[in-house]
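seq:
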Amino acid sequence: MDVLGEVIGGLRVGRAEARLVKESGPWGMRYAAFAGSGFHILVRGEGWLITAAGRPRELKPGDVVMTPSGAGHGLSHVPCQLESLPPAVMSAEPPGAGPADAEFLCGAYWLRYGQLPRYLSQLPEVIVVSPEYQRYPQLGSLVGLLGRDVSAGPQLGAGVTRSALLDLFLAHVLRQWLEQNRDADQPEIYDQVVGAALREIHASPDRSWTVQQLSQMAGLSRTAFTKRFTAVVGKPPMAYLTCWRLARGAQMLRETSAPLAVIARRVGYSTEFAFGGAFRREYGISPGRFRQLDVPAPVSASLRNSALQTKAEITVKPKGKQP
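struct:
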């Protein structure tokens, strides 16, 4: 099972946002915790990552700070205590056209509805990746594309391109973190027995699955299978099946114009009314409203400077070489 693919797919239920942030002189801000997953890329200058626990960590150009489960943290021009940093405030003004002491490209998936994939919630609250841009030049290209995308301002198809770029970037960053931290405590990402059942559920959410069918496929008794599945996934089989169906339905509502009745059938519900009832219980909103609602991004430090720079050229410099 492609775990990272499933993780990114789960995030796509949320709203994708990205911004360029510029700071000069003495600067620092505290990022409040939020429901979702986000990151910062230091594209120019230097700074320090500040967390509630642990010592400040110096950042160099190209470093990526990721909050897999939206944990609170801070960024500053000097080492300090997290509580000493002021909360970041959204600005109505775009960053200036000239260079700044420090520039960050920030992105996030906001999950106003749905749940964070369990895998992300089991990762460290804040991780830092120093990507190998020379070994993986495609990652540097993604940073450049994302930078140009946020600098272009509102345009047709921006929601689709923004989501696609965030998907690719997060997948590459998580992959490199896993490679660089093989000895660190990591979530269980694969279980052959449970993985076989998950593949079938993911491939055919429309089938009328039962615990008996899934346990027979796994070669275990119902009791043993349920216990093992729950330990690995965090939910009993039928509860996970319901969550997966509704998450796929939410993604289709976001990304397609298919009628509700069609979506309902594709994710295992006999009628759109049955799908709608289950959807409201899970997300607290009807499928129709979810599809139509343009959810505003919450105020967050990682998304400050709501107006976008129009002429910025963002280039990730190798570590140790200052722009």
